[in-house]
Structures are given as structure tokens and as C-alpha cells.
Amino acid sequence: MAKIKRDDEIIVISGKDKGKRGKVVTVLEDRVVVAGVNLVKKHVKANPNRGTQGGIVDQEAALHISNVALFNAATQKADRIGYKLLTDGTKVRVYKSSGDVVDVK
After folding, report:
1. 77-87 mean pLDDT
2. Whole-angstrom distance, CA of residue 76 vs CA of residue 64
């Protein structure tokens, strides 16, 4: 079970975008892509067959997973994640600071 999953609300804890918040778009092995964070300029070549226009576009680059932390809405701060087994045997993610369950369904 991964500590950070797709669609989690995260906050960047180090780097040039420190303090920015966003939703996780993609989780790679040890990197995450976050919407609106770590924007880089990419030079795109035009492709008339596909109908794409050339130019310079902004896109999100991957961040290392150690540079982000899950955002705890209750405390409005970054929080670490742990695991806990419930009485019915399911494994859930919990906030380390409060012990509250992250995945409330």
C-alpha cells in the first residue's frame, strides 16, 4: 500500500515550489506529478498530421516523493502517514499526528 496515492491532496515541503498545494495526477515509482506544481517550459515541435501547433508550453514535471507530504485538512498542515489494521482486518492509512483515518469512504 502506497503512502501517497493518485487524487490525494499534497503540499510541497521542499524545493522551489515549497508551500504549494495540489492534487496528485500520477504516481510513478518514487516520483509524483502534481497538478499546477513544478511547471516547466517544454519546446514542442509542430505536427501537421496530428494537428498540433508548435511552440513553448507549460507542463508539470515530476517531483520526488520525499519532497511532498499529505495535507491534513483538520490541522491545515503537512502530515506523515502510517498504517493501521482495523478490527475487520482491513489496512488503512492514518495520520501520524492524530491517528485519524485518511481514507474515509
Report:
1. 94
2. 22
